[in-house]
Design a protein that fits this description.
Bound molecules: pyridoxal-5'-phosphate
Number of strands: 8
Number of helices: 9
Shape: globular
CATH architecture: Alpha-Beta Barrel
Number of domains: 1
Radius of gyration: 17 Å
CATH topology: TIM Barrel
Distance between the termini: 28 Å
CATH class: Alpha Beta
Length: 233
């Protein structure tokens, strides 16, 4: 078995155990394999053992990989998620190449994505990124701005607001990991109380996916535990 296949099996076991520990059906949690910095060949290896959803952070790298994978496996449907920082002048390739965007934190970006999404592709699935760690990280909408942002994004025609995403400050203590994820879960519940039909909590990575699942994650974004350590050179 390839390393990637063995790693996927181990991650699957972790997710299954964490789901069982919270009495959640495994089917309520999607594994997003974060393939940034790894070549199309790594994605194809993961696809060979059934993985179908992949996350990319860097636009040009992601768009090229999507094309390479489609060329190599034209008849296998793959779901691509954009999970990196978004520059407002580079929204079009995101709107035309991806099925999901997890990192929307401003209305202006959402408006551009909606305008640039080809309607025949169906709505672009959106998660709003929230800054749950305050000063420690800069990315994400402020919690006090979230309600208004969500209300406005939910009205854009070519987007479908699915839920919330966070990258909390890294913590090794599982209790602290859970506390940050619990905040995001509460914010999602508040939006649901406002009447927004959201169903997604994108939270948890290689180092904290169990805590995220315990707090209700519906998508875990896992990179290094599947593909190995990244080399940014
Ligand atoms: C890189 C990245 C991940 C995966 O991180 P690992 O620790 O390698 O699992 C998940 N989410 C986002 C937004 C990332 O940028």
């Amino acid at each position: 078995m390839s390393t990637i296949a063995a790693n996927l099996q181990a991650v699957e076991a972790t997710i299954t155990a964490a789901a069982a520990a919270s009495a959640r059906p495994r089917s309520t949690i999607q594994l997003l394999a974060v393939s940034k910095t790894f070549p199309a060949e790594a994605v194809l290896e993961a696809m060979a053992v059934g993985q179908r959803a992949f996350g990319e952070n860097y636009l040009q790298e992601g768009v090229e990989k999507i094309a390479d994978v489609a060329l190599a496996q034209p008849s296998t449907p793959v779901e691509w998620h954009f999970i990196g920082p978004i520059q407002s002048n580079k929204t079009r390739p995101i709107a035309t190449s991806f099925a999901w965007v997890h990192t929307v934190e401003r209305l202006k970006i959402a408006q551009r994505l909606s305008e640039q999404r080809p309607p025949e592709m169906g709505p672009l699935n959106i998660c709003l990124q929230v800054n749950v760690s305050g000063e420690a990280t800069k990315s994400g909408a402020r919690p006090d701005e979230l309600r208004e942002l969500a209300r406005q994004v939910a009205q854009l025609p070519n987007l479908r607001l699915r839920g919330l995403m966070a990258i909390p400050e890294p913590q090794t203590d599982p209790a602290l990991q859970r506390a940050a994820f619990a905040k995001l879960r509460q914010m999602a519940e508040d939006l649901r109380d406002d009447g927004l039909p959201i169903d997604t909590l994108s939270m948890g990575m290689s180092g904290d996916m169990e805590a995220a699942i315990a707090e209700g994650a519906t998508i875990v974004r896992v990179g290094s535990a599947i593909f190995g350590n990244r080399n940014y050179d």
